[in-house]
Amino acid sequence: MKKEILTIFNHDRNIYKSKYIYPVVSRRSKGLSLGINLNTNNACNWQCIYCQVSNLKLGKPEAIDLKLLESELDEWINKIVYGNFLKECASEKVDFKDIAFSGNGEPTAAPEFESVIKIVLKKIEQFKLSKTIKLRLITNGSYLNKNSVQSGLKLMKLFDHEIWFKIDQVIPKEALKINRINLSISNLKKNLESALSLSPTLIQTCLLKIDHQLPSDDSIIKFIEFLKPYAPNLKAINLYSLARPSQQKTNLYIEALNKNELEIIADKIKILKTKVECY
Ligand code: SF4
Fold first, then answer.
1. Long-range pairs for 222-229 at CB < 8 Å and ≥24 separation?
2. pLDDT, tens digit, for every residue of 160-205?
3. pTM score
């Protein structure tokens, strides 16, 4: 295998040639995250303008080969837990922090989502990782009301786990521009309430400068108002901006917010009295 150095700037899921499993050094996980990509056809139900998936298309994942996924997961955990992978493949010392459902599209769109969770839980037990790593679901939340997704999430309850629930915008016109979806606030509420009823939940919010304009004050006020009733039950709100270039075609000019610009917005959101972190 070609030796590669993983950094927070290199999230190429194809470096190691596995179909479903890929390692990344993650800013937000604060270490090595073993990613599970259930969207190998690059299909997502959202089409965010900042998405870093090349050849992203609108749609659902293709059928998942569960045997192959299990054998790749087995191979990767072996390399990390018993091999030299952590020492050789990152530029600085990193610890194995999590297994994350985070692919080239929305993971909960896969009909096999619950079966994959069962495989992951089996491996966590087999390699005795339940006290050292977390299980994370990184999601746009749009399928969290589906029974099969909820059954999967109930299984995750047995282990240390979290949902990272994406809310970039709560103004429908802005969500259409940024996530390219027709946002329904009532569905967003239902999905967020499902997440909160099943798992420790963090909000993850990508903020962008669009055509040189920072997110409007109105969009931040509406975001705060929307989250107010949920704030006491949220674990945190994570704000981030572009770390790597968008792979999407758009007529809009998008740029990352700098740390200071993110922190100014974070200070406003702190009125919710929930932990707010910037990445
Ligand atoms: S939800 Fe995630 S995978 Fe889907 S388009 Fe947005 S950033 Fe890309």
1. 222/170, 222/171, 223/167, 223/169, 223/170, 223/269, 224/268, 224/269, 224/271, 224/272, 226/167, 226/170, 226/185, 226/188, 227/167, 227/203, 227/272, 227/274, 228/272
2. 999 999 999 999 999 999 999 999 999 999 999 999 999 999 999 9
3. 0.92
Q: Which helix (H) or strand (E) holds 205?
A: strand 201-206
For the Cβ of 143 lying below 6 angstroms from any atom of ligand 1, the answer is no
Residues 128 and 70: their CA atoms lie apart, in Å, by 16
Return the pLDDT at 2: 44
Strand runs labelled E in 27-154: 31-36, 43-44, 57-58, 96-101, 134-139
For the record, the structure tokens of 190 come out as 């239902």
Ligand 1: atom nearest CA of 52 is 8
In this prediction, residue 158 has a pLDDT band, given cuts at 50, 70 and 90, of: confident
- CA-based nearest residue to 195, from 247, 230, 239: 230
- Closest ligand 1 atom, residue 39 Cα: 3
> What are the tens digits of pLDDT across the range 89-103?
777 788 999 999 998
* CB 248 near ligand 1, within 6 Å: no
Tokens of 153: 């999430």
Q: Calculate how far, in angstroms, residue 131's C-alpha sits from the geometric centre of ligand 1.
A: 30
CA dihedral 250, 16, 27, 211 (to 10 degrees): -10
Mutate to test the pocket of ligand 1, among 46, 55, 191 (most ligand atoms within 8 A of CB): 46
Domains with residue ranges and CATH for the chain: 21-206 (3.20.20.70)
Ligand 1 atom 8 nearest Cα: 51
Q: What is the pLDDT of residue 16?
A: 72
Contact 272, 224 (CB under 8 A): yes
